[in-house]
Specification:
It is globular, with a radius of gyration of 20 Å. The chain contains 13 helices and eleven strands. 34% of the residues lie in helices and 15% in strands. The protein has a six-stranded parallel beta sheet, with helices on both faces. A five-stranded parallel beta sheet has the order 3-2-1-4-5, with no helix packed on it. Strand 4, helix 4 and strand 5 form a beta-alpha-beta unit. It folds into two domains: 114 residues, 3-Layer(aba) Sandwich (Rossmann fold); 185 residues, Rossmann fold (3-Layer(aba) Sandwich). The protein has 344 residues and is α/β, with parallel strands linked by helices. This is Lipopolysaccharide export system permease protein.
Amino acid sequence: MSRILFITSNRLGDAVLSTGLLGHLTERFPGARLTVACGPLPAPLFRAVPGLERLIPLPKRSFARHWLRLWLDCVTTRWDLVVDLRNSAVGRLVPARRRAFHAKAARPMHKVEENAAVLGLSPPPAPRLWIDAAARAEADALIPAGTGRFLAIGPTANWQGKEWPADRFARLALRLTGAGGPLEGARVAVLAAGPERERALPVLEALGPRAIDLTGRTDPMAAAACLERAALYVGNDSGLMHIAAAAGVPTVGLFGPGYPEIYGPWGSGGRAVTGSVPRADLLALVAADAGARGLMDGIAEDAVAAAADDLLEARRAARPPGTAAGCDQFAATPGEAVEVPPLR
């Protein structure tokens, strides 16, 4: 039985965007035993991967000792295939029959395409999630019984410069779920990582009893189990946005100084909304003042609502299979296919 070492990101969003490539490996080599190494934050998302033999969370240590620890964990195994999206020395120094490394794209492309190019896959496999029974049980406990389909919003991010104003999130949620809105009468789940909870409180307070408070209460796997029940997700450029899209939820991602052509929500059910201020101007503001505020103010509430309406209407119309994948901001470009021989 073959063994595969898959080294992916310590960042939540990048790790989610690598799951399509990992899913391809589980299907191409169904009997293989997989070891996944990633950051501690995204690690729960990989615990139910088919064929998983070992999950190695990789917390950063001073003097790059985390890489030494990973090498010690892996050097005694003879790997049939190493897929290293970190392009690390570990991928080169452990014994392996075959190795594949991430390389920076020569042209701008979505991160899903960039990952697929590691094995020359075209079209690129879409991100996916392996949500287990424990996570779904946690979602049962967190979401009130009888809630039905709800609106999910992610009003925070790992950098405040990527956060749309909280009052606009609240108004948008009330607009979408209020009388005459496309999700009339629906409740609103508010998600945020633990350290970001305080910045989500104004949204929770504005929504009142309509809100379902999921801030700081879930790991990524449980968040995925909650999000897969949503009718729509609207949020800033963040790992939660990518989890929602990978869970198959219509997803609107908001981008100010970010790069939707690289990190937009993947799939035909994804929309990236940008503002009226050019990205170059926003980045110049950041360069002049790292704490610059108002970088997302140029995103109009009407534009976000229109993207949400469009996605919900598309879902109702049930687009036929075969609709081209990819965030609406870009078109996927096929890469050169490289055949990976069967593992023995």
